[in-house]
Amino acid sequence: MKKYLAVFLGILSAIGGFVDIGDLVTNAQVGSRFGMSLGWVVVIGVLGICVFAEMSGRVAAVSHRPVFDLVRERLGPRVGFLNLFGSVAVTFLTFIAEIGGVALGLELVTSVYYLLWVPFVAVLVWVILWRAKFSAMENVLGMMGLALVVFGVALWHLHPDWTHLVNQMATADKPHDEGWLVYCYYAVALFGAAMTPYEVFFFSSGGVEERWTEKDIGLMRANVLIGFPLGGLLSLAIAGAAAVVLLPPGISVDTLGQVGLPVAVSLGKIGLGIAVLGFVAATLGAACETGLSVGYSVAQYFGFQWGKYVRPNEAAMFHTLIAVSVAIGAGVLMTAVDPIIVTEFSVVFSALALPLTYFPILVVANDPDYMGEHANGPVANTLGLIYLVLVVVASVAAIPLMIITKMGQ
Amino acid sequence: MSTRAAGGPAVVVLLLLALLLGACGTVKEPDPEDWDETARVSLTDAASEVSAVKLTLVHARSDDLWRSYAVVVLADAEEAVGKAEDKVTVLQPPPARTKVADKVANLLATASDVVGKARQSYVASHRVEDQLLHRLDVLAGRLEHQAKAL
């Protein structure tokens, strides 16, 4: 019974923790401009993150070492450093966007300008990362993030033409006034948002923090293969609600407040309150995950003691890295840079960095010296290779599309 | 000195020359197509914000939104319309677009004014007049129409 409860809690946390500021903003933007015509990208992206999260989780469970640690050992310091640079740069950008997202969520509740919330949020994130237990942090924020299920309820309550929505998704039927290049730009952004690199680093490092063994592979797979796709459904619900409420009057989303409008239209104040709780929880959870991921990645590469399973004074460099990241992140936001613009950059640069993240994972998960009998089988390798091609295409296309379309204009 | 080492400064000189020649060939007049594109994006952005303001006010009146949320959405929209206006008005219009540039600037100024007044009125009285909603509706239509006409 206890085991089933653990599986259930893990799945719920995975669902609630799946959506972050990148998913919130990008899915709402895409829904409000393209309807459900880019929904297929979410499906492909979610399957991709499942493939690589399963691999990195398996690596952590079998080797008891996180992926970054092994990448440096297996591929050498140069490739490891390239991997570190690409991943940490994108994760740090995402971290800034998440802190900004929490501040924007609090602004919606209080009307107090978000910049005044930024220092408070930064301190809150630092305190959580310093003091809270790993499992408590993951479960509490993940559960609160489940509040975003309200987007699914709102969509249902709007009584949309389901056949039309599914047809749009299946046939990639974009509105006529949108160009194909802009469509492709948003496809890459959605793909980047769904396959954000930090998710796999956090997942594998979390596995080591929670002392996974080979016995936990089943539990890990349940979290990934059930939790992540259900989290992906939340992304589709956000896009669907925006497609039904915001697309017809021509409202294209560019603020967090506009992301919540479809819920207010459908369910009123109570629904909106739940949605805002979801915004704050999802972005706060992701801020903690990205903050930890920055510390994990750098500490694992340089061989510092890391993790929340050891006392802070035993992992002093790891906690110093986190504290410095929080301070710099808050400092960047205090320059009044728009967190939504930071989010848009983070999802596109995330697409750019995808091969740097996922190629090494595929190599390590294939190495029988580390993985023994748990090395990748033919299915994992076929999917891994297909996704490697996809992430390379997305990576190559990301910056040219961003420039040509002037960030989707 | 090797050929490879001697080629380095020559490449740098050629690049500098190319840069200088490029600088000499600066545009004398603004490009009409670039101006059209900027104006189209600004008008579309402004139309989107005006529609968002209308949707927010309609549902604030039905008590579907709490006040702080509505105020933030309205203030964000006001800021966005102001940015859209600035994006066009800071550009020197090409001679062939002088008339339409005035029209676009006036339309965006009206949008900025109406959205600003809508926010002020909601903050001051919490009331949303039918006349204001109608005005926003018409304005969004005019902005979209002008964007399509470019």
Notes on the protein architecture:
The complex is a heterodimer of chains A (409) and B (150). Chain A has 409 residues and is mainly alpha-helical. Chain A is 80% helix and 0% strand. Chain A contains 16 helices and no strands. In chain A, helix 7 (150-157) packs antiparallel against helix 12 (256-302). The termini of chain A are far apart. The model of chain A has no long low-confidence stretch (mean pLDDT 91). Chain B has 150 residues and is an all-alpha fold. Chain B contains 5 helices and no strands. Chain B has helices at 3-24, 32-61, 67-89, 98-125, 130-149. In chain B, helix 3 runs antiparallel to helix 4 and helix 4 (98-125) runs antiparallel to helix 5. The A-B interface holds A 107-111, 245-246, 249-252, 254-255, 257-258, 260-261, 264-265, 268-269, 272-273, 276, 406, 409 and B 41, 44-45, 47-48, 51-52, 54-56, 59, 62-69, 71-73, 76-77, 80, 140, 144.
